[in-house]
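ligand=phenylalanine
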Amino acid sequence: IVDAAKAAFIQATTPADLENAKAQFLGKSGRITELMKGMAALSVEEKKTRGAAINVAKQAIEVALTDCRQALADAELLKQLQAEALDVTLPGRQRGQGGLHPVSLAQERIEAIFGSMGFDVADGPEIESDWFSFTSLNNPPNHPARSMQDTFYIDTKGDDGVYYNLRPHTSPMQIRYAQAHVRKHGGEFDVAAGKLYSGAMPEIRVIAPGRTFRVDSDATHSPMFHQVEGLWVGENISFKDLKSVYLSFITSFFETDALQLRFRPSYFPFTEPSAEIDIMFESGPLKGRWLEVSGSGQVHPQVIRNMGLDPERYIGFAFGSGIDRLAMLRYGVSDLRLFFEGDVRFLSQFQ
Ligand code: PHE
């Protein structure tokens, strides 16, 4: 009977089957109960031995039942685990790694290099008044830079009754920063009244990178572009300082000494003398071509005055370089527009 029960239990493939099989052996009218009933007619001695034997059988059947229940539960669990299994060997979903824009990368390099040479880094408004963008920079009223063809103007006057523009260069920052610097060091001035500061103060040494705007668009011009203004004003700052500073900067920026610098006479209303700075690589894909990277010059005395300073005491240099241009040269990009189209296939190359 024990073997028969075991065989029946093992055949059960579901818990319900197993409970049915159990009923056949251990149930109210099951085989064990039958055997017990069959003892009624036996003698006391026989009852003892037979009863003991039936009990042993009953216990063996119960053990077999428990084992089979456990086996069924295990099999069920295994099935469930297999159904829900994760293939941990599959490659995971990659988390997209962002990167800085190449123009931002170039700007960060510029800030780090000039920072290491003791330059402050300043920031200023992109919407400028006529005075900061032009007048303060000694721009004659009829200078072509003021014309509507170059500069984006805002067609309503500001609250102060003057016209504003999207700054066409970072040069307004020369005046803004210098005036704040003079004020900060206790210099009193009143540009409109011609009252200038001629006392002592720490040198002005700053770069001002940022967005600039001009009505222009082709492979090398974008209506929005980036410049970095540089300004160093003190009591004894000369063109030779401009050359050494710019050379240090450009060799650090391109990580090579194998390049030459050339100052080409030029004209800007706010510098006198003025020069374009060209560079030429002595090796690499751009070898042998003069490339214009910056405007520069000695700050015009009228601009020194508009800073609130006495040009008899203060002198200095300024430069304004195209950041996008420098980024194009450094990363070998031939079309400026790629910088501003936001195509990830292009941008993801600069991680
Ligand atoms: N502001 C000039 C430009 O945009 C560059 C420049 C800056 C030239 C400072 C001289 C000195 O072209």
